[in-house]
Each structure stands twice: as C-alpha cells, then as structure tokens.
TrEMBL record, chains A, B:
This is Alpha/beta hydrolase. Keywords: Hydrolase. GO terms for molecular function: hydrolase activity. It comes from Streptomyces malaysiense. InterPro entries: AB_hydrolase_fold.
C-alpha cells in the first residue's frame, strides 16, 4: 500500500493545510491546529473543470475544520488541477465547449464523461482513503463523511456505495442516468442539493436521483435559481449535517 | 381598532411569555427578556387539532426568541384551543375521523375545511398583527416573518399574500388545491417543508405548491418519512432562515 507523502505545510486561523501526494495523485489535507488525538474525516471531491484548492473547496474545508474539528481531504480528479489530461479528456472537453457554444444540451456529454472519470477516480479515491486512515490523527474505524457536488457526485456515488466506511454523504447537482442504479445501494444518511431552475438538469431528473437513494434518512434541498446559483448557505447546511452525523458516532467527541 | 389585553405573564430563561386577548381571540406573545428597544416579529400559526401553546409552538418560539431576539406571536385558530367549535367545525371533524377510520383519503376533507377556516382566520390574524404592531417593542415598519405548517399554511398563504408587511415566510405540509393560485402572488423569500413519503399529500402535489410561489428566493426541504415525521432540525433551519431575512432588514440589529 502506498503512503501519503506531505510536501508542504501552512497554518492559519486554527487550520493546518498540508499538501500531499499519493503516488501520482496530488491532494490536500486540512486539519484542526489543536483538538483531540483523533477526529472524523470528510472526504471531499471538486466539481468538473476545477481543482483541489478551488475556493469552494477551501471554503468548505475551513468551515468543517473550524466548525466541527474534522479533518478534510480532497485530491485532484483525473485530468484536473495539477494532473495531465488524456486524449479522451481533451476530446470530451472540446465536445462540451462545442455544445455550449452551439446552445445544445450539455447533459449527455457531462453524464458520459463523468461516468468515465468515475471509473478512473474511484480506485484512486479508495487508495487515498486507505492511506489517510493510516495517519494517526484519523485512523481506521472512525466516522467518514463524503461531500461532493456536480462531477464529485458522479464519482462519489459509486465511491460511497461500495465502501462501508462511510457514515453520511452530501451529494447534488447531477443527472440520474448513470447513477440511480448505484444510488439504490446507498443507505447512509444523505443530504442532496438541486437547483429548482437548473438549465442543464431537468427538474424531474434531479428528483429521480434523490428518490433513488435507499437511505432511511435523506433530505433534499431545492433552491430557486440556475445551475451555478447554489446558495452559499447550503455549505453551512452541509457542515451542520456532518456535525450531526459524524460527531454522534465519533470515536472521541470533538 | 381593538387593542391587545395582556392577561398573564411568566418569565423563564430569558423569555417573557405573555398571554393576551384581542376581543374574543386568545393568543400568546413571547419576547426577549432583554435586548434592543424594538425587534422583528414572527407571526406563527399552529396546525390542525392543536393550539397556541402546543409543544411545537412553544419550542419554535423559544428558539426564535433566544436564538434571534425576535418577538413571536400565535393565536388560537377558529374552533381550536380555547375557542368554541361551530356546528360546521364539528361536522368536518367528524367527517375527518370517519375517513381516517375507514382508511379513506383525508386530503379532500382537510383541504375543504382548512379553506373555510382560512376565510374565518385571515381577518382575525390581520387584526392581531395590526394590534401587535401598536406595541412599542414591535412597532410598524419593521420586518415581520410568518411561520406555519399544515393548517397554518392553508391560513398563512392567503394571510401573507395580500399583506405587504411580511418579509419572509416558512410554509409546508399542505395540498396545492386551494392555495396554488394565491401562492403565485407571494414574492417574499419562502422556505417550504414537505415529507417525501407523506401518506396524505401526494409528492407531486407538494412539489406543485412549492413551485407556485413566485418568490425569487425559495427553498424546498424534502425529508424522507411520513406526514408527521418532519425532523426536529427543520425548526432550527426555520430559525436560521428568519435570522437571515429579518435581521438583515431589522430597524435595529438584534
């Protein structure tokens, strides 16, 4: 098994930020500067076209670390951030831009490309979670959350579905096409975000993916507005969701 | 114009609870024991078959007063709490129990009865709001919230729709039949609660009522579970919703 190699460390306002690599995969781990010996981990994923230190990632991580005392990790997805694109990546990105310029639906391309990315990313994310759990501040057996919207839901649903380590997950903003069947195997508490006036994802499609989760406890948050207009307060809601579900089962109270 | 007459006062944990009457209508006003000279008001309504001091009412009021420093008022709806039932009330309540025992749909009876109750209640609620705004701690021109689920949504939608004093509203758990047309006149921020597995309100009906609100800012919270299983954390969410919308426009910051 590969191990996490820390490559840089910075600290501000009670949050320690450590860049790491796991083989070829670059990632970042945010941790509380002080606290108990061990704390729960939230594994995050970034959206399509962004990367591990995108403002949405650093903002959510800071809220989770300072608000809950959790560790938060995210890695660059294949073809994203500091990682090379394959010929297939370039082809799909070009197809997406062509559709966008022509005013044609982006959904079929995003669904197809994200499904392919998920096949490449899930084994990497599993290896990353394995390695993170080797760190003494995280360890095995403690609660683990998953937090990922857009492309990170496309990767996160198959990642979470077959891994009993997860305690609770926040998903959202995706089509059900490649995911609904897998979502039916997910039974942990889920909070799901959709945009009521999404210009890309039909309302019925978003509702169908939420409906597919087999979780006894699941909550849909639908906000007025277009695809990219998810309100900032949904990040705070996700933090409270993880506080409820990861703290209650924490090895040590944080 | 009739005035509020206070009939009893109690105080505990920073909350002053004052029973009042406005003519024949009994109500209760919860206020912060200390704070600024004026503070926003949240007007609440109770659900069908309950009353102004039902635990859900006192619990929500306490959260709003201690969490936000707001005033919170609720009155007994016609035929509820300390108020007499008419022959029509008795008839509809009997019809509801018969349907329940026979396993027949309750929806048509509840929709019809609540629409009639709304016709009786809305003028009373308007007079109560008028009178509450005569109190120096509340006053006119400040932000006003409305918070009511179930029957209180059936009364609250027509109450809020034609009254420019309201700043933000929390509704939920009702059929669109008698309400959707009126909801299309509501443009203030709305948070709407539904139960994903509601045995009385079909999913498409709940979504249709949420869709009807003309508000630029609206949020649907759909939770797994049956009609009466609304999670307790939705009360906390409503408190945060009012904190966002009433504080921002408060005459004085609270």
């Amino acid at each position: 098994m590969q191990s996490i190699k820390f490559t840089a460390q910075a600290s501000a306002d009670g949050v320690i930020e450590r860049d790491f690599t796991l083989g070829e995969i670059p990632g970042v781990l945010w941790s509380p500067a002080s606290g108990p010996e061990r704390a729960p981990l939230v594994f995050m994923g970034h959206g399509g076209g962004t990367h591990k230190k995108w403002p949405a990632m650093t903002g959510r991580a800071r809220r989770l670390v300072t608000g809950c005392g959790f560790h938060v990790a995210v890695v660059d997805a294949p073809g994203h951030g500091d990682r090379p694109r394959t010929a297939y990546d370039e082809q799909e990105i070009a197809a997406l831009y062509r559709a966008r310029e022509a005013g044609e639906p982006e959904g079929p391309i995003v669904v197809r490309y994200n499904a392919q990315l998920a096949e490449r990313a899930v084994p990497e994310w599993r290896a990353t979670l394995d390695a993170l759990q080797e760190l003494p501040g995280i360890g095995t057996g403690g609660p683990v959350g998953f937090f990922g919207l857009n492309m990170a839901t496309a990767i996160g649903v198959p990642f979470v579905a077959d891994d009993p380590r997860f305690t609770a997950a926040v998903f959202g903003l995706h089509w059900p096409d490649a995911l609904a069947e897998t979502a039916r195997r997910i039974t942990i508490p889920v909070e799901y975000a959709m945009q009521w006036d999404d210009e890309h994802i039909p309302r019925a499609s978003a509702l169908a993916l939420f409906d597919a989760f087999a979780s006894k406890e699941k909550t849909l948050h639908a906000n007025s507005g277009r695809h990219k207009e998810l309100p900032r307060f949904e990040s705070d809601s996700a933090v409270r969701f993880f506080a409820r579900h990861l703290r209650a089962t924490a090895v040590q109270e944080v």
